[in-house]
Structures are given as C-alpha cells and as structure tokens.
Amino acid sequence: MKQVLTKSSEETRELARQFACSLKRGDCVALVGSLGAGKTEFTRGIADVFNCAEQLTSPTFTILNIYDGERSGERFSIHHFDWYRLDSPEELYNIGFEEYLYGDGVSIIEWADKFPDLVPKTAKRVELIRSSETERLITFEQTFPLR
Ligand SMILES: Nc1ncnc2c1ncn2[C@@H]1O[C@H](COP(=O)(O)OP(=O)(O)OP(=O)(O)O)[C@@H](O)[C@H]1O
Ligand SMILES: [Mg+2]
Questions:
Q1: pLDDT band per the 50, 70, 90 thresholds, residue 58
Q2: Ligand 1: which residues within 6 Å by Cβ?
Q3: What is the per-residue pLDDT for 76?
Q4: How many domains does the chain have?
Q5: Distance between CA 86 and CA 68 in Å, rounded?
Q6: Residue nearest to atom 10 of ligand 1 (CA)
Q7: Please, what is the average pLDDT of the chain?
Q8: Whose CA is nearest to atom 13 of ligand 1?
C-alpha cells in the first residue's frame, strides 16, 4: 500500500502520470472516492500519459467514454467508465462492458465501489479522500515504481 497527500489538482494529475507509466494492456484502474474527490483529475493524468487527455470529458451522463490512446508509439484503447448514475448493473451488461474490461486496452472506472462484484479481481484500486479544499489523500492498494 502507498499513500500520497496531494496539495493541488496538478499534483494529483502528476501522481496519476507516474502511476500510468506502469499500466499494461488489460489493466483496470478502480477509482473510489466521494463527489469532487479528484477521480476525474486522476483520470486526466492517466489520459496525459496515453496522449488522449484532450478527448477526455467527465462522463457523468454516459456510462462509458472510449478514447484513442497512444504511449511510446503503441496504440491503446482507453475505456473511461463512470458508474455514479447507474442504479443497477443492467446497463453495463447491455453495453457488453466485460469486453472492454477484459480486452487489451486500459480501463478506468469512477465510482467502482458501486458494483464491486463487477470490478475485475486484478484491478488496481485507488482511493481518493478529500482532506481539505485543496488536499487529497490518495491510497494505492498496490505499490508502483516512482520516478
Ligand atoms: N489535491 C487535489 N487533487 C484533485 N483535485 C483537487 C485537488 N484540490 C482541489 N481539487 C479540485 O477538486 C475537484 C475534483 O474534481 P473531479 O471532477 O476530479 O472529482 P471527481 O472525484 O471526479 O467527482 P465526481 O464524483 O463528481 O465525478 C476539481 O475541481 C479540482 O480542481
Ligand atoms: Mg468525475
């Protein structure tokens, strides 16, 4: 386990960039944390590394956004889920979410703890807690190499 206290959204994005360097094909990042905790900021840092941040939107009204990513000349499909508005997993089954989560792209799930049973067992869980207006305590379940 690793914990970092970030003091700005830029620090959160930078931490996410460092984390994203270690992501591999098929990885899933399960983001957990309340409204405004910084899940989308963290996702933005990941998207920076995959050079698709300009495609990113806060997918509050869509369950899934797909971005064309690229890292070190390799193309990656980035699947950005937001489960906040889902009342039941039915919609996820309707869009065939498993194909995305278990494919060769990289998936990120905001509000992953809404349907814990649907999160891949191998997902990297990242929890964000708002400790003040500008500070977030970010906990990684697994360690990752820091530059
Ligand atoms: N240290 C910090 N890290 C991340 N965001 C921060 C930090 N300090 C302040 N903020 C602000 O907090 C907000 C985080 O918003 P963000 O959309 O990333 O949250 P979220 O967890 O995705 O919320 P939602 O559940 O609504 O999707 C932004 O306005 C950002 O500028
Ligand atoms: Mg968000």
A1: low
A2: 6-9, 11-12, 33, 35-41, 58, 84, 110, 134-136
A3: 98
A4: 1
A5: 25
A6: 9
A7: 93
A8: 36
Least confident stretch, 2-16, 55-69, 80-94: 55-69
Share of the chain above pLDDT 90, in %: 89
Is residue 108 a part of any domain in this protein?
A: yes
Which atom in ligand 1 lies closest to the alpha carbon of residue 31?
A: 21
Q: Give domain status of residue 147, yes or no.
A: no
- Domain region containing 21: 2-140
Helices H, strands E: what count in the chain? Answer: 4, 7
Task: Provide the CATH number for the domain around residue 115.
Answer: 3.40.50.300
Confidence bin at 7 (pLDDT 50/70/90): very high
Burial, 116: exposed, middle or buried (Cβ in 10 Å; 0-12, 13-18, 19+)?
exposed
Which three-class secondary structure state does DSSP give residue 64? strand
**Test site for ligand 1: of 3, 6, 8, 9, most ligand atoms within 8 A of the Cβ:** 9
Spatial separation of the C-alpha atoms in residues 78 and 94, rounded to whole Å: 19
Q: Which atom in ligand 1 lies closest to the alpha carbon of residue 84?
A: 25
In a domain, 48, yes or no: yes
Alpha-carbon span 4 to 96, nearest angstrom: 35
Please say if the pLDDT value at position 80 is more than 90. Answer: yes
